[in-house]
Write a structure and sequence with these properties.
By secondary structure, this protein is mainly alpha-helical. Helix content is about 75%, strand content about 5%. Strand 1 and strand 2 form a beta hairpin.
């Protein structure tokens, strides 16, 4: 006859994973099921017809009219530029922290210093750029005061430039953190051996550091792309209506109470992001290399 201890040992793994499963079911699976359900409800003529299921919402969204194409192009452009800038800045900052800063205390201090902006809300951090980038802001005032320009630069605020600047400010740490985790594990003896064999600095960077940093780059890329493509707050606050991404299209449809169309667009955006993440996972085996 099995004792209680034997039974607990048999189901120990299930008991340990049950809190995580419960959290995922409550806060991920259930909300996604509701969104999927709404995406199949019929909308019209003026309200959602609950219980009437159609695939018209997906057909309409996937028809890619001119507005959808424009939103898709803005999403890809903004995401690509943000990813490229955060990758370069994140790599340089991480390289400095890992290989140039010798003392561990200073490394930890500088890393924590980079986290300080996250003590405030992301919306506050985005709005904080307005006093800097406005016509009478700090940057335009300084440029006019120095005689560099005679009139305020219009492209600084309520433009794609402002949106991308806020994304770079907010999201660069999401590239630094995984890169730091991976780059700090590189065996310094490998670099010293390369130097002893006559390898130059750029060769060490190109053939040792960058290849060994691929898992960190992959994880950072997933963070940056997912957070940028799914955000609509910065676009609404800082673009001044000059651009509209897929995420803002989802929000606008929701604000107009066209919930089935909004849900269908959200599901399609989620599928696109999951396919992208799957492609990254195919290119870089993160679990194997970490």
């Amino acid at each position: 006859m099995e004792t209680e201890q034997t039974v607990l040992q048999r189901y120990s793994a299930y008991l340990q994973i049950s809190p995580l499963v419960l959290i995922l079911l409550t806060f991920l699976i259930a909300p996604m099921f509701v969104i999927l359900l709404y995406s199949l409800y019929k909308f019209g003529p003026f309200s959602t017809q609950v219980g009437v299921f159609v695939i018209e919402n997906y057909v309409r969204t996937l028809s890619f009219d001119s507005a959808t194409w424009s939103a898709l192009a803005d999403t890809i452009r903004t995401t690509a530029i943000t990813w490229a800038i955060t990758l370069v800045l994140g790599f340089i900052l991480t390289y400095y922290l890992v290989f140039d800063v010798i003392q561990l205390r200073i490394k930890i201090f500088l890393f924590l210093l980079a986290v300080v902006p996250f003590w405030t809300s992301g919306v506050v951090r985005m709005i904080a750029w307005v006093p800097f980038l406005g016509k009478e802001g700090l940057i335009n005032g300084s440029l006019i005061g120095l005689g560099i320009t005679d009139e305020p630069l219009q492209f600084l605020l309520f433009s794609d430039f402002a949106v991308i600047l806020s994304y770079v400010h907010v999201l660069t740490l999401f590239m630094v953190a995984p890169l730091f985790n991976v780059m700090a594990r590189i065996d310094l003896r490998l670099i010293e051996a390369a130097k002893d064999q006559g390898a130059k600095g750029w060769q060490i960077l190109l053939y040792i550091i960058i290849p060994l940093s691929r898992p960190g780059i992959a994880i950072g890329t997933i963070f940056i792309v997912a957070l940028t493509a799914s955000d609509f707050v910065a676009v609404r606050i800082l673009s001044g209506g000059t651009s509209g991404t897929l995420a803002t299209a989802v929000f606008n449809q929701y604000a107009q109470s066209r919930h089935p169309y909004s849900a269908a667009s959200g599901i399609i955006l989620l599928v696109i992001l999951l396919l992208f993440v799957g492609g990254i996972m195919r290119l870089v085996d993160i679990r194997k290399q970490l």
